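Hey,
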Amino acid sequence: MTQSSIQFRGHLILGLTTLVLTGCATPTNQCPRDRVHIAQDLPCHEVESRKQPIRYLILHHTAASLPSSMQILQGKHETNKVGIHYLVCNKPEAQIYRFAPEHLATSHAGKSAWRQDQSLNQSSVGIEIVNLDGNLNPYSPSQISQLIALCQEIVIRYKIDPTHVLAHSDIAIGRKKDPGSLFPWKQLAEAGIGAWPDDADIKQFQSRYAKKLPDKKEILNQLIDYGYRPSDSSEASLKLTVEAFQRHFRGQKVDGEIDAETAAMISALHLKYCRPTSTAKN
């Protein structure tokens, strides 16, 4: 088990260390971009000074039209104070709007947790993608192309670990479902953005689990090792955690049930990015 998982299962102790921010040399401006064109800068009022270095990239869908999204994400709504760094729209053409400079934190993650970290606003860059519901509506190729270019630059600039490129639904289990089961995570991983299990490992584990499924506790431990933070160890919490995993890695089946393929993908992901446990290859 990783050290963060041990801490989580016991009495999770969160210590925030004062660290120096990485990123642009001049904090009032973004770093130069070669492939990313910002169509427009819009003011975001829901920002605060960043007190932690950027280590996460969090992706969302807007669940609203472009005009509504542009209003909401400026943080002016009295009862729904939200903010974001970037918005990727699709109509009339795919383009990127910037709402806040990266040296400021925005309130896009809300109540959230991943590994040893909680409340990820301070340590993340947030990107909203215009889509009414990414669980029902596919993303256009041009929209994803713009998003990939933006994400690649952010990931490279801040040296963001693949396991720290996350869906809002990954870090807010049971509370959020964006950017949705139709979001092309594998395509992003192939472009160097985020994590994805190896096909050969999936096949090997699936062959094993077709004969006998692993214990649910073992699957839960692997999910926690990887980074997911269920609220407790109950069946209901495990189901929601598996749903969050499926929404990211197995979008065609999001039901919270652990079948051979879901278990195989979890074990393959764990094998690739975590220290091997009893389910690892011999």
